[in-house]
Amino acid sequence: MNSSTPSPAISVNWEGETIIVSNVERKLPALSTGDDRGEVVAAGGSNPLTPLPVDAWHAVARALVTPAAVAAQLQQSKNAPGGLLQEEHVEGATLRSVLSRAWLLELFPGIQPRTGMEVMETADPRVEGMTESGNPTTLLRYTYKTLEDLKSHVWQTIQGTLFLNNYTPSILSRKVTRALITHPVEFAFEDGTESIYALVVRDGITRLASAWKVLAGPGKSVDDAATAAVDALFGTISAKKAGDKPLTQRMAASREARRRTLATEFADDWVGVQPGVRAIEVAQTCAVPVQITVGVQRHMSGPALAAEDLFDDAMRSILASVHLEFKEWDPFAQNVEVATRALKRVMQLGLGGWDKDDLKVVYGLAVGRTPVEDLPKEYGSNEIPGTALWRAVYLVHALTHQGLYEPLKEQSKSIKGERRMSEKGFGGLLAPIVDLPWRSTKRDVIKQARNAWANGGVLAKDLLVSVWEPVPTTDFTTLIEPARQGDENARFTLAVAGGTALIADKLLTRNVGSALMAPKDKGGVPFRADVNDIVGDLAQADNELGLWTLALAAQRFDAGRLPQNSATTRQITRQQGVAARPNDYVHVLVDLEASDRVARDAAGKPIPLTQWDVVWASDEPRANREMARRARSSSPIPLSPIPPITSLQPTAAESADEEKSEEGIPTEGETAAESGAPRPLAQRAADERRVLKDSLGDARHALDELIKLESEHSGWPPLFPLDDLKPMHADAQDIKHELYQRLKAAEERQRQEDEVALEEANDGDEES
User: Fold this and answer.
1) Strand partners, 203
2) Which of 109, 342, 344, 642 has the lowest tally of Cβ within 10 angstroms?
3) How far is CA 589 from CA 480, 567, 607, in A?
4) Contacting residues for 294 by C-beta, under 8 A, at least 6 apart
5) Residues 538, 541, 545, 547: what is their CA dihedral angle, to the nearest 10 degrees?
6) Alpha-carbon radius of gyration of the chain
7) In 3-state terms, what secondary structure has residue 143?
8) Are 233 and 218 in contact (CB under 8 A)?
């Protein structure tokens, strides 16, 4: 039991900051017993409003600090047939929850838009809702490829969250004070590993990660905190002790053993009347307040989502109500929530005239629940290629269909509280939905691509007012001739597929004035135009050059990597000294006179496409007029080659989109081994100079190796964490300053010696 009288306020020095700790309890909560947990399982299983599988109830019970209190909330009575459950009403459903405290070691980070929008190495799992007798439940199934993928995902979620925000001072001072929103989940694995049942946190992931940072201790990096969390959450007891217990129970037993260890650390560090730092860390983080959603009930008024989709959608509505109105997510996370919630409203209200089953397919694609390879099955046609680009084509087709476009805009405006929404605004909503399959692999240009969507994307004006259907094909060039003959289906299929490919690979970026001042080979353009206007002009029936540009871009598109065309000057600079890896993926310039329509240089090598070429192909007469005007100008636009890679400056077109980065040189504080016998100062100095030189060489090598890894890295979490870069950069600056001062002093001494030698030589000449 906790002490009823908290300890007096104390101050601790934690990571260089003095923190006032005001509420450390004298005793930790007692561990629950099997009988206590059994009461929760029995009460929950008998409550008709909380239909969960028994494994899920065991996961809930294991997490509870006070199972008896939750069993009381679940217990039915004459005056409360459903128990004392908290109710929340959202669009289409009512959620029911219990309020309690949970052990930190029983909570896993879940999926939410803020983490889902990050570019991470391990992608989010496939999420499926679970039903009981055809009715929705609050259990979700997260399917990963392997258990190692789950561990990696948890690690990067905690580490990436701590890079963005960190509440450790507040938690150390006052604990976690606001409840984490949680629910049970089944972790399933494609490789046949048995499932794991646990509680996941859907809101409060930053608080969860910060608690792990506190528990890791002062001086530990965010990497250390994430590693400590994974080690604790996924530990297992030995095979000898395990017997025939399933993996879930073996891991649960390991976590309980870890809680006992923490209790021992707490007791050992409480000396006298005040606790030590370790005791405070354990006391403030071992248990956190939670709201555990255990029941969901469908609203029967009007059309609704499928039973397996209802709960996760309702949970997303809860999260969005907080993070769209109170504590905002970043714009792209908001956009994906607005778009999917608007689509859900259209489904529930029966707007747009679409068949409900067809809308469920679109919804599954939009939120990522339907795998790309299932596209042919979902649309009932084996002619549709199951690729990421065709997913984009069918999503854009559906979401911009005349029957859905206006209702989606109206619902999106309602959710965002706005009076109007332009084509560009709607394009911004589509960006993080369309790029889901290649978000990690094309991480280096994802920001520019999303900005291009927010500048209109592929939403050409004639596309939005036309009725068309995608034309499935494995060769986009076969659509060119029908498009030239006026086939709208072929034309718009090329516009969406080719435009999406060009945007995703940064061959088409948003309309910015600085691009006019940039050379052709550094992202410049011959004239300014919004992205959707460029795509629309490329797809005109009388624009053969534009149609071939779209078709070849779509045909060559690879969702798994970036083409050579996407490399920026800064990225080239980062790879100095690194052996270039072969990359045969490149978008090519069109030559209508060539048999295959691919322009080649004198050596027969395809000429890479540039954004200049794309914009030029959209409107050749306008481009020629602009070139003629520039030729008459006194300050023509230079078409200079790429400057030497020693320059670290981004291109003018990139400067509005790319964030500035700082890179430091890591140093190692090595010293020469001291000898037992005194040695001459000169020899000791020579030894230390050798150590200094070797250490700088090792630092250079380590930095080069990190740069090599950076070229392969998914982009999140960063390989150069801010917490590491700052001290390393400071150390490097100190060393640079010291060496510079000595260099200048040595040069000055050399200059003086040269002057003396010259004077002596002149004196000798005069005497002779």
Assistant:
1) 181
2) 642
3) 16, 16, 6
4) 44, 50, 52, 60, 74, 85, 96, 97, 98, 138, 183, 184
5) 60
6) 31
7) strand
8) no
